[in-house]
Amino acid sequence: MSKLTNQCALCFAVAVSLMGISSVSSAAEGKPSPVDNTAAVNPGEPIVNQVDAKDRTSVPRGSKVACMTGPNSPRPDGESTTCPVVAYDNIQFWPLSYVDNRFDMNLVGYNADGRIVSQRPLDGARYIWKVTVDSTARTVTFWGQSNHTVVLPWGRLE
Fold first, then answer.
1. CB 3.0–4.6 Å: which of 17, 67, 146, 154 could bond 80 by disulfide?
2. Do 32 and 88 belong to one domain?
3. Counting runs of H as helices and runs of E as strands, what totals does the chain give?
4. 150 and 72 housed in the same domain
5. Are residues 61 and 33 in the same domain?
6. How far apart are CA 108 and CA 116, in angstroms?
7. pLDDT at 7
8. Where is this region: Disordered (predicted)?
9. 63: β partners
């Protein structure tokens, strides 16, 4: 492939990404090509990423990483290898459980250096398995065991 063709392919991928298309057909290969669509997210809107559960090595005392595969935890749904993490305003928010198994979560904010910059108790759910963002209501919903939820306005992500 020529240098110009490579540049055109890159421009096309960026354009498709900005339009929010998650895959496109490659005429040359006749099969879908994955495209990173993170650039299509509205600026200032929280993003939920699935992050390797082992990536969080710095956990506040009294908290633990306990991410599940579904609402029926710990059985039949078990522990997940990934955790739903909210990225917002240059902070990654991890919904952690407490080691004493209380029915709450500790929402811990980490900066780009991995340092803890905030902690907020979320009362009413534990053992996170899903996080959803409602752009219209401007809320983030944390889903825990037995589908108990905690709803937090974007402005309270701090």
1. 67
2. no
3. 1, 11
4. yes
5. no
6. 7
7. 39
8. 61-80
9. 98
